[in-house]
Design brief:
- The chain is of the alpha/beta class.
- It has one domain (about 10-110, about 160-265): Rossmann fold.
- The chain contains ten helices and ten strands.
- It has helices at about 55-60, 85-90, 95-100, 120-130, 135-145, 160-170, 190-200, 215-220, 240-245, 250-265; strands at about 10-20, 25-40, 40-45, 70-75, 80-85, 105, 180, 210, 225-230, 230-240.
- It has a six-stranded mixed β-sheet.
- The mean pLDDT is about 90.
- Bound molecules: adenosine-5'-triphosphate.
- Adenosine-5'-triphosphate binds near residues 20, 48 and 54.
């Protein structure tokens, strides 16, 4: 992508290999393999088959996981900050804390295990990250995401659409510069889908939003599309340009065309 942009995230040679024991042997799965790409302000939707590495990429970008190799660089108007194994050792902890506060993350989790209530959890998070007037902000988010009726519910009791709305609310508490969403519509109810759509439509001009999804309706909100396969970036570009090349002009049609192309490529023998 061009260098005229003022805010962007750049992944350089990011690699993550999962090693695990199975039947008394060590096995390895590729999470990401030498992944390099960059995205700028706007909404980037990441598509790819199951196991392509979407969640791994999002976890690393949300600073929930360190890459084995490579780095993620966050460029804002004023600063450039790196997330890499080397940087964890080299940085002052407050620098990484400052970067963490700029990131809102919606993980793909079936449930939470905390006993804290919805109201207290949102207030605590707002306070912990130094939000001005944490009481007001946490109440605003509770009302905005239709959680007022669940204010006294412990997080561990939240399920389905309500859990997802809580995760969305907490991810937006700090007005994130980088908003990272893993399958946000999976399990989300109608109210949540409507609120998510509204949030995406009025997102601040500078915000970098990255969404991994299999939901082709949601994918239509993209400014940019990324296709991830086997831990690497296969395609990245403006949605308008990529979908203009397929007859229906939709993301679903483009994705299908890319999959057919992939299958043909892998069956082609030299
Ligand atoms: N904790 C783990 N231990 C071992 N392997 C893992 C672990 N987490 C992910 N993997 C493997 O890493 C690869 C990438 O997984 P990842 O969850 O990032 O893919 P994904 O594109 O998000 O898949 P999906 O669309 O199914 O959510 C897969 O082969 C997966 O099985």
């Amino acid at each position: 992508m061009g260098k005229t942009m003022t805010m962007w995230i750049e992944w350089s040679h990011v690699t993550k290999i999962y090693e695990f024991e199975t039947e008394n042997k060590w096995a390895r799965n590729i999470g990401l393999l030498d992944f390099s790409a960059s995205v700028q302000s706007g909404i980037t939707v990441i598509l790819g088959p199951r196991g392509a590495g979407k969640s791994t990429l999002l976890k690393i970008t949300a600073m929930m996981m360190l890459p084995d190799d490579g780095r993620v660089t966050f460029h804002t108007h004023h600063q450039t900050m790196d997330w890499s194994t080397g940087n964890v050792h080299a940085s002052r902890p407050e620098q990484l804390g400052e970067l963490r506060r700029k990131i809102g993350y919606v993980p793909l989790v079936p449930r939470l295990d905390q006993e804290m209530t919805v109201e207290l959890a949102l207030f605590h998070l707002a306070q912990l990250y130094g939000t001005p007037d944490p009481r007001k902000r946490s109440c605003e988010m509770m009302i905005r995401w239709g959680l007022a009726g669940y204010r006294q519910t412990p997080l561990m009791k939240l399920r389905g659409g309500v859990l997802k709305r809580f995760l969305l609310a907490q991810s937006l508490l700090l007005h994130p510069t980088f908003w990272i969403l893993d399958e946000p519509t999976r399990g989300l109810d109608l109210l949540g889908k409507q609120l998510l759509r509204e949030e995406l439509q009025r997102q601040p001009k500078d915000r970098i939003t990255i969404i991994a999804t299999h939901d082709m309706q949601l994918a239509e909100c993209a400014d940019y599309l990324m296709l991830l396969e086997s831990g690497a970036c296969r395609r990245l570009g403006k949605k308008k340009l990529l979908t203009a090349g397929v007859s229906e002009g939709t993301v679903a049609a483009w994705y299908q065309a890319m999959q057919v192309f992939s299958k043909e490529k892998s069956s082609f023998k030299v």
